[in-house]
């Protein structure tokens, strides 16, 4: 946890800035003393000083970060109060805020610096709701050996990178593709460092090529018969083009998007890549859109056989 919160002075985009503790742990004074001692023991100093664990910020703090480092919200207290260096305006010792309240500034604001907010919860469902309420969703971590808790968290937390019983920083290209949800989503939603990153529409120009005929594929044969039986005002070859696209979507769904992947299969560490569907998708249409564009957009957003049946 200390590594996730304070390495690189908490400036990594996936750094832990909010720590939620179960009531039994939060209320234990011994745990709090251990946490305080561990944070205060982190060496603070120049980046070229090898013993340093917390180095300077990229610039003197301002705005939200300065407020987070210097101001307590109602009900909060300092478990460890951060201190600026007398010689370097960009260098601060790490701080820990206790009794962070739901809906407060510390709860809902991303603070890219050496300050950690600590909150109390009584059930995992409550903890998941508190995390999801922030609106951000780049990374989330859980420390638990209970497989039921792991499953509940995995299926309900809204974040792009989920870390179980390990730090929340240090993603490796391909092994842990990087991207987020909510206000932490970027671009068209492709996760950087993954096997389909290069398919991002901003990085290439897709061209259609001849594929297996849809009417010869058992999974699409019935759909092909129904579509060709409908009178559609479309240019010659438009329906055939659409069916070729649906065959491609169907193959990609089965081989990539509807499966979980662990390419590396490391001993002692699982690295699962999966795709979580949006609950709702809004498709914008225009009078100038072709039959292919209308059908293809809808079918690309859902399993093609279900979307077009």
Please characterize this protein's 3D structure.
By secondary structure, the protein is an alpha/beta fold. The chain has three domains: 1-122, Aldehyde Dehydrogenase, Chain A, domain 2 (3-Layer(aba) Sandwich), CATH 3.40.309.10; 123-189, no CATH class; 207-307, no CATH class. The protein has helices spanning 2-6, 23-26, 29-40, 63-70, 105-108, 124-132, 147-156, 218-229, 238-257, 291-301, 304-307, and strands spanning 18-22, 77-80, 95-98, 115-121, 136-137, 139-142, 161-164, 181-182. The strands form three sheets. It has a four-stranded mixed β-sheet. It has a two-stranded antiparallel ribbon with strand order 5-8. Helix 8 runs antiparallel to helix 9 (238-257). 25% of the residues are buried.
How do the helices and strands line up, and which of them pair or pack?
Layout: H1 2-6, E1 18-22, H2 23-26, H3 29-40, H4 63-70, E2 77-80, E3 95-98, H5 105-108, E4 115-121, H6 124-132, E5 136-137, E6 139-142, H7 147-156, E7 161-164, E8 181-182, H8 218-229, H9 238-257, H10 291-301, H11 304-307
Parallel strand pairs: 1-4, 3-4, 6-7
Antiparallel strand pairs: 2-3, 5-8
């Amino acid at each position: 946890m200390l590594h996730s919160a304070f390495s690189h002075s908490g400036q990594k985009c996936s750094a832990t800035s909010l720590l939620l503790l179960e009531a039994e742990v939060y209320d234990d004074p011994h745990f709090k003393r251990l946490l305080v001692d561990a944070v205060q023991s982190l060496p603070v100093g120049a980046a070229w000083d090898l013993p340093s664990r917390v180095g300077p910020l990229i610039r003197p703090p301002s705005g939200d970060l300065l407020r987070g480092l210097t101001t307590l919200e109602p009900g909060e207290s300092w478990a460890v109060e951060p201190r600026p260096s007398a010689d370097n305006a960009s260098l601060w010792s790490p701080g820990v805020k206790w009794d962070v309240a739901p809906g407060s500034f510390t709860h809902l604001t991303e603070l890219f610096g050496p300050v950690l907010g600590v909150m109390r919860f009584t059930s995992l469902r409550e903890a998941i709701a508190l995390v999801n309420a922030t609106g951000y969703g780049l990374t989330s971590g859980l420390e638990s050996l209970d497989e039921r808790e792991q499953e509940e968290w995995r299926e309900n937390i809204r974040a792009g990178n989920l870390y179980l019983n390990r730090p929340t920083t240090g993603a490796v290209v391909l092994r842990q593709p990087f991207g987020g949800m909510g206000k932490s989503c970027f671009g068209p939603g492709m996760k950087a460092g993954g096997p389909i990153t290069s398919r991002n529409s901003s990085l290439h120009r897709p061209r259609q090529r001849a594929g297996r005929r849809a009417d010869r594929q058992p999974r699409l044969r019935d759909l092909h018969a129904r579509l060709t039986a409908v009178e559609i005002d479309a240019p010659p070859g438009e329906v055939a083009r659409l069916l070729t696209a649906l065959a491609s979507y169907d193959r990609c769904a089965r081989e990539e998007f509807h499966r979980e992947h662990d390419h590396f299969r490391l001993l002692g560490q699982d690295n699962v890549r999966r795709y979580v569907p949006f609950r709702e998708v809004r498709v914008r249409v225009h009078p100038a859109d072709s039959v292919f564009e209308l059908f293809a957009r809808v079918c690309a957003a859902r399993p093609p056989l279900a979307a077009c049946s």
